């Protein structure tokens, strides 16, 4: 926050209309200023603009995941409020795991949106029913802790690579990759989220934020790339 008490707000959305809407909502607010908006987190961070809070669209078409985006903003010392239509609670869970302060619906009132930004800009959690539902309402999405190496194996294999292909990328043998996959499947089984097929692995990778949701218009979101 600036010395004058103004919260510096950034926004990440790959559609202009939500940005225009938030610009209007914040007009005339003495303690809130939208200082930068861009289509990706990379663009926002590249500016070097000091920000207190970012309003982040849950689904971007640049191949990033909510988990990745929230983590990068958090590492930069910026609070994040997820801005969404309310779909995909699994993605909200992955954003929460990465440190998002809360969620506000795109259909929320202007006062709710301003209040969420004020809370997050002060480092406070944004408590909404949507946030609570995403965190607590789906017991099938019990957290699974994967090491960075297992995360990479899951992301590559679930994206369509063979064991040999994953091994070539990571510099290990196909047999080692298969052992990694056994560990991944065991961890998900222990969490009550079985992964018997490659499509199951693809779904889990999306649910937990290791892979981005398919781009809008790409077809069936449950089918992995071939």
Explain how this protein is built.
The protein is an alpha/beta fold. The protein has 2 domains: 133 residues, Rossmann fold (3-Layer(aba) Sandwich); 66 residues, Arc Repressor Mutant, subunit A (Orthogonal Bundle), CATH 1.10.10.10. The protein has a 5-stranded parallel sheet, with helices on both faces. α3 runs parallel beside α4. It starts with 6 loop residues before the first strand and ends in a 19-residue tail after the last helix.
Labels describing this entry:
single chain, 226 residues, alpha/beta, Rossmann fold, Arc Repressor Mutant, subunit A, 2 domains, 5 strands, 12% strand, elongated
Task: Give the structural class.
Answer: alpha/beta
Report the portion of residues in β strands: 5-15%
Shape designation:
elongated
Strand/helix succession: EHEHEHEHEHHHHHH
CATH 2nd-level architecture of the largest domain: 3-Layer(aba) Sandwich
Helicity, as a percent range = 40-55%
How many distinct helices?
10
Number of strands: 5
Radius of gyration, CA atoms, in whole angstroms: 19 Å
CATH homologous superfamily caption of the largest domain? Response regulator
CATH class of the largest domain: Alpha Beta
What's the helix and strand layout?
Layout: E1 7-12, H1 16-26, E2 32-38, H2 41-46, E3 53-57, H3 66-75, E4 79-84, H4 89-98, E5 102-105, H5 110-121, H6 129-136, H7 148-158, H8 163-170, H9 174-190, H10 198-207
Parallel strand pairs: 1-2, 1-3, 3-4, 4-5
